[in-house]
Amino acid sequence: MSEQSKQTPLYTQHEAHGASFTDFGGWQMPLKYRSELEEHHTVRKAAGLFDLSHMGEILVSGPQAAAFLNYALVSNLAVLAVSKAKYSLLCNAEGGVIDDLITYRLAEDSFLVVPNASNAPVVAEELRLRADGFDVGVEDQSEVTSLLAVQGPHAEAVVLELARPGDAEAIRAMKYYSLLELELAGLPVLLARTGYTGEDGFEIYIGNNFAVRLWDAALEVGQVHGLVPCGLAARDSLRLEAGMPLYGNELGPTTNPFEAGLGAVVSTKKPDDFVGRAVLEPLKQTEPERRLVGLKAAGRRAARAGYDVVGDDGPIGTVTSGLPSPTLGYPVALAYVDAAHARVGTEVKVDLRGRAEPFTVVDTPFYRRQPAGSPS
Question: Which stretches make up the GCVT N-terminal domain (predicted)?
């Protein structure tokens, strides 16, 4: 762990709960508290509390905020309704992905852009550069904002325990990728029904000075609902089961949205020019040379990032993420493979340190949560 890495406002809370730490994106973050497997299963069955305060928060506001974001990002943000969110990409002029991010529309002329932790300064600077000529302000609020996440089938119950009774109906009515400004534990927050685990859940934006109070309150009221604090290890295994990409693994400057399976977020129908459009628009009409696919192992050994995917005539791709799935009971992986081998059902092999083991290309996500009321 680097001595230069930052600490979130909740660092002492993590220490008190026995967390082991890791450096992630320049931050000292809890990797796990007791067992990452226990934390993973708890999120799938009850609820987990995550500190995501290493993520970035960038406020984009002004009369031309929507037009500016339509130029800066590949999606159509101008049509986004107030109190809704959209997943999008910030691409470079060559069509490569600088970051994947979520944008919330707070008001007609105000948006909150949330980049990944290690990319927050890069995204903020890139947005400032792209804002030239627009009547818009770009304010990086990452240093004063904390982010907590409550994820799992009992997440709504935990949030309702923290909320005022008069807000209960509005919280229950929240759809996926929506948000509300309200109070939790008597503290002002922005509550979003978003997440990165494949479960129902909420992400809570709050000022740094209130973060400890909210964290402690959530753990206290969440006890009856099985809530436990969770670290990055469980977060990674949960997001992989849900088939969600991780920047630096599945996404990067040399990756375009179409080979990553994210072509749907690229809006070539919007009239606005946007950075990367000249490259991305033609790519939308062609078959990618490689595709991001899901792989299911035939055996018990897991593929890991960087391992070669091989066919009869040699390497055909590279694993980007892989592990034994705690929920499903067998190893899964994401990998980029040549388009000719990307069809679901294709049998391939992965070179597991000198031994080729069989895998099958499968649909993603690997795991889908059951609707409320379904039998387990």
Answer: 10-270
Dihedrals φ, ψ of 98, to 5°? -80, -40
Question: Would you call 47 helix, strand, or coil by DSSP?
Answer: strand
The last residue of one of the domains, among 109, 140, 171, is 140
**153 and 112 in one domain?**
no
Instruction: Give the pLDDT confidence score for residue 361 in this predicted structure.
Output: 98
One domain for residues 34 and 181: yes
Please check whether residue 274 lies inside any domain of the structure.
no
Question: What is the distance between the alpha carbons of residues 42 and 234, in angstroms, rounded to a whole number?
Answer: 10
Task: Check the annotation: does 199 bind a ligand.
Answer: no
Q: How many residues does the chain have?
A: 376
Taking a C-beta distance cutoff of 8 angstroms, is the pair 337, 293 a contact?
Answer: yes
Task: With CA atoms as reference, report the closest residue to 150 among 199, 188, 116.
Answer: 199
Q: How far is CA 103 from CA 86, 183, 262, in A?
A: 5, 21, 16
Say which CATH number the domain at 169 has. Answer: 3.30.1360.120
Question: Which residues form the domain of 357?
Answer: 291-362
For the entire predicted model, the pTM comes to 0.95
The two tokens of residue 111 are: 């948006």
**pLDDT for 3:** 55
pLDDT at 118: 87
pLDDT value of position 25: 87
Please state whether the peptide bond connecting residue 358 to the residue before it is cis, i.e. omega within 30 degrees of 0: no
What pLDDT sits at residue 373?
Answer: 44
What's 328's domain CATH number? 2.40.30.110
Which of 241, 256, 274 represents a domain boundary (last residue)?
Answer: 241
Q: Is residue 251 part of a domain?
A: no
What confidence score (pLDDT) does residue 371 get? 64
Q: What is the DSSP string of 240-286?
A: HHTT---BTTTB-TT--TTTTT-GGG--SSSSS--TTHHHHHHHTTS
| Residue ranges, the chain, pLDDT below 50 | 1-2, 373-376
Q: What is the pLDDT of residue 14?
A: 98
Q: What is the domain count for the chain? A: 3
